[in-house]
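User: Hi! Is it possible to get a structure for several chains at once, not just one? Here's what I have:
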Amino acid sequence: MIVEARGVSRSYGSTPALREANLSVAAGEVVAIMGPSGSGKSTLLHCLAGIFTPDSGEVWFDGRRLDTLDDGRRSELRRTAFGFVFQFGQLVPELTAADNVMLPLLLGRTRRRHAERRAAEWLERLELADLGGRRTGELSGGQAQRVAIARALVTRPRVVFADEPTGALDTLTGEHVMDLLVGLAREEGATVVVVTHDARVAACADREVVVRDGRVSDPYTTGAAR
Amino acid sequence: MTVPLALLGLLEREPSHGYDLKRDYDAFFGRGRPLPFGQVYSTLGRLARDGKVTGQSEPGDGPDRKRYAITPLGRQEVATWLAEPVAAEPYLQTVLFTKVVLALMLGRDAAGYLDAQRATHMRRMRELTEVRRGGSLTDALLADHAMFHLEADLRWIDVTQARLGALAEMVRAS
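Assistant: Yes, the chains can be modeled jointly so their relative placement is included. Here is the combined structure:
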């Protein structure tokens, strides 16, 4: 398993968001986390990605305990081993598409010329070769999400975490964005964990789990569906 | 296909006359399409012939004074049917609804059934996604049509899952 949550609980004040949640994701797998609003699915993703620390339980990444690492080492892991795609891209609107894609490389001290070349390659793979010089604030929602995918994959992450990556897009644009995300992640051998409430998005994954009231239900391991 | 199993399920709840079965079927599953008496009795006749119900004649007036009871074979058939997800196809509303209500009525695992059904639907969604990606535009449009219908079922499954407690109370109270 490359990513694993073992009995993870997390509360916001007195409100429990996750209750002893378990999830194992194999390397190269694409897994969708589904569930109603407020069920805890985004909290689970944030715990798996080392953004949140669980109140109890364990989070493992590639044979290493993630939740007990100090902030610095977790940040480094997020920068080097993980890629992120969020619902609204979270791009820097004043920067160009190419600068946004380069950003994680420059933060990782890649030389600028090399970073420029890598960013250009990834923009081309995301069918954005002509838009590299455009500020991301001027792009359409679908174009901005494709820039976000390029930024997530440019560091060759082991795992891409995506939180409602098509939530703000129409059906056709959303499908295109998901096809690119999943297709390119597979080409790169990256694992994808995607949170979504959309069955069409989840259908792009190898399997789905459902979070209800902070607990994970996995029909493929409980045997209910086989 | 659903009517014999729904009648069997109602009989598992308690032995009944044909008239009472029709009344309960219409109340829970008829939805404006009441079951003709003729179909009730012909179905019960076939179920009796196949050993899934027994009919005990009772003295009295009226066209049918038989009291029907489910047999172990009939009970087994209901159990198998309620545990099995339906093949993921459009227009399943009637059968999905019937299974959930009967499962609640008989104290079976309705939530487990909904989870299994959800997984079956999602598996079909994945197959159709592959068709959409790899097929011609016509194939993709046909796959889209099927997926939008399955999506509607999936939304219904989620909403029903969330309302299962209230539905169980309603079914047990009626």
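Confidence is low (pLDDT under 50) at residues 222-226 of chain A. The interface with chain B takes residues 36, 175, 179, 199-200, 202-205, 208, 210, 212, 217, 219-220, 222, 224-225 of chain A (CB under 8 Å).

User: Great, thank you!
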